[in-house]
Queue: 3 jobs
Job 1
Amino acid sequence: MKILVINGPNLNMLGIREPDHYGKETYADLCNKIQSYCQGKNLEVTIYQSNHEGDLVDEIQKAYGNIDGIVINPGAYTHTSIAILDAVKSVNIPTVEVHISRVEEREDFRQISYVRLACEKTITGHGTDGYLEAIDYLAKGK
Ligand code: DQA
C-alpha cells in the first residue's frame, strides 16, 4: 500500500513555531517518525511539504492512480482553500485530515475546514501521533 503524507504552510517550522500549540518535535522528527512507523508496517510512504497552495494541488493531482491513501494537514489552507478541497475530491483517494493542535478549541477562523468535506476522517489535537493514527486508519481500509 502506498501512502502520501502532505503538509501545508509553516509545518516545516515545527519545533520552532508556537510550541504550546504544536509541540517541540521538529519537522525532521515528524518525517522520521512517519517513515519508521510505515517501515514497521510494510507501507510505502512519500512525505511532501510546501508553503504554496498550487504546489499542494499539484502533489494531490500527481497522486491520482499512484497512491492508495492520503494523510493531509493543509495548515492554514485548511480554513481558506477550496482549491485543495477540489483537488482531493478530484483524485477520489481515501483521505484523512490531521491537525496537530486542537483546532476546535482555537480561534473562530480555524473552525471552518474546507478539505474536511472531502475527507473520510479528521484527527485533531493528538500532536504528531495523529499522523500515525491516520496511517493506521488508511491501512485498515476503513
Ligand atoms: C494546524 C492548524 C491550523 O489552524 C494552522 O494554521 C496550522 C497547523 C495544526 O496542525 O494544528 O498551520 O493545521
Job 2
Amino acid sequence: MDWPAGEAAFVTGAASGIGLGIARALVAAGAKVALADVDEDRLAEAAEELTAAGGTVTAVRLDVSDEKSWATAADRAEEALGPISLLCNVAGVNGGGPIEETPLTIWRWVLGVNVDGQFIGASTFLPRFRSRGTRAHILNTASVSGLVPMANVGAYTASKFAGVGFTMVLREELRDSDVGVSLLIPGTVATRINLTAGEAEAKLLGRRLNREIAEANHAVLAAGADPDRVGEQVVEAVRDGRFVIVTHREWGALVRRTHAEIEDAYEAFDGRHGPDPTARMLTGGTNPVSA
Ligand code: NAI
C-alpha cells in the first residue's frame, strides 16, 4: 500500500471546500482522518459522510488561531486514530477590503487564522513527528494571492505571502529530516469561502452580511476547480513528496510578471554597496542564520 494508506492525518478546515476534498481523498487512499474545524454543524456532516463511506475519521472542534486548543485537539485525534503523521493546514479566511478600509480587528483575524494557525499547527505536530522519527508530512495551504498581489484583499494577500515564506523556510529547515513539506497554491476553487468568511467577518464587526457582495464573490469561485479534484491532486503530490502544488496554468505568467519587476530592479541597480555577505553564503549553498 502506498503512503498515506494506513496513516493518520489531521486536516484543518475539513468541514468544507478544499479541506473536505483532501479529507475525502485521504479516506479514499486508505488513511484515517481527524477532521478539524470551527464549524461544528458542517464538521458533524462531514464526519457522518466519511464514516458512511467506510472511512475511519474523528471530528475535532478547533479554532486554529487559538494556541491553547491545539495540544488538546492533537491529543484527542491521536487517542482516536493513533499517531498522526500528516498535518494538512487548510483552514483559512478571507476578509477586509481595500487596506485603508480594513479594520485592525479584521487584519488580525485574517492573519491569526491564516498565518498563526499554520504556525501553531506545525509547532504542535513537529515535536511529535520528530520524536517518532518515521515518515511524516506537513502541507500548508497558501494561495496565488501569496505570489501575486491583488487589490482589495490586502489582509488576505499579506497572510498568504507570509504563508509562502513560512512554508519555504520550513522546507529548508526540514530538508534532511523524515518530515516532508508541501505548499498548496490554489487558484480559483469552487468553495464557499466567500460566504463562510463573509459571515464570520460580519459577526466580528457586529454587522449583517452584505449578501449581494458575498453572493457576487461566491459566483466567481463557482467557476473554479472542483475541490474534490484538488483534494485528490494534493494526496497524490504529498504521496510523491512534491513541494509546490498549483492548480491553474495561467497563474504562471502572472507570477513571472510580479517577479520580473523585482528581478529587473536588481539588474538595473548600480551595486554601490559592494558584495552582500549573506547573498554570497546563499549562492555558496549555505543557508545563513539571519539575513
Ligand atoms: P471554505 O470556507 O470552503 O473552507 C474553509 C474551512 O475553514 C471552513 O470549513 C471554515 O469553517 C474553516 N475555518 C475558518 N476559520 C477557521 C478557524 N479559525 N479554525 C478552524 N477552521 C476554520 O474555503 P476553502 O476555499 O476551502 O479554503 C481552504 C483554504 O484554501 C484557505 O486557506 C483558503 O485561503 C485557500 N484558498 C482557497 C481558494 C479558493 O478559490 N477557494 C484559492 C486560494 C486559496
Job 3
Amino acid sequence: MPRGLFITLEGLDGSGKTTQIKRLAGWMEKRHLKTAVTRQPGGTATGDRIRELLLDSRSAALAPMAEMALMFADRAQAVAEVIEPALAAGTTVLCDRFTDSTEAYQGGGRELGSAIVLEMHRLVVGDLQPDLTLLLLPSLEVSLSRARRRNDRQTAQTGKDEGRFEQEQDAFYRRVWEKYREIAAREPERVVLIEGNLGIDEVQEQIVEAVAERLVVGGKTL
Ligand code: TYD
C-alpha cells in the first residue's frame, strides 16, 4: 500500500491555519481521500497534557531548552501514536504545526538557533519530514493583531489560559516570522509560501492547488 502524504500547516499565531486545515480536510473528504487531522503540541492524550504545560501562562519561567525538549517529547509521542501509523496505512495526515514551528519559535523566537533544533529532530524523529508544508505568512502586523484579539476572546469565553506565546513581545514574533521566511527560502520544494494579506477563499485556493499537485490517486493526479 502506498504511504499517505504528510502535509503540515505552519504560520504565526493568528495566521488562519486552523480554519484552513478544516477546509482542506473537508475538501479531502469530499473526494473520499482517507485523511487524519492532528495538531502540535497535542493530538494525543499525553500530548494534550504537555500542551497544557507549554501554553499555560503560569509556565512563565520555562527555560528555552526545556520548552524545546517538551515540544519534541510531544512530537515523539504524536509520531509514534498517530502520524506514522496513519501514513503507513495510506492515510494523508494534515498536521497543524511540526518541526518548522520549533525552528521558528524556539530556534528563532527564543534564539536557540536552527542547528540544535534540526539535530534534535534527527535524533528524536529521524528521517520523517513533511512531503508538503503550507506556510501561511500574512504581514507581521496583521498576524500580531489577530493573535492578540483571539487570545483575549478565548480567555474571556472559556476561562482557559493558552496565552503564554501570545503574550510575547513583537520582537519575539519578528524573529519567528523571519525564521519562517528563512526556512521557506532554504527548502522551496517542500515549503509552499502563501504570503500577503489574502482572504480566506484565496488562501484556500492556493492550498488546494498545492495539495492537488502532489496527490496522485489511482495513478492519476487530481
Ligand atoms: P496553538 O494554539 O496551536 O497556536 P495556533 O492556533 O496559533 O497555531 O498554540 C501553539 C503555540 O505553541 C503557538 O504559539 C506556537 C507554539 N509552538 C512552539 O513554540 N514550538 C513548537 O514546536 C510548536 C509545535 C508550537
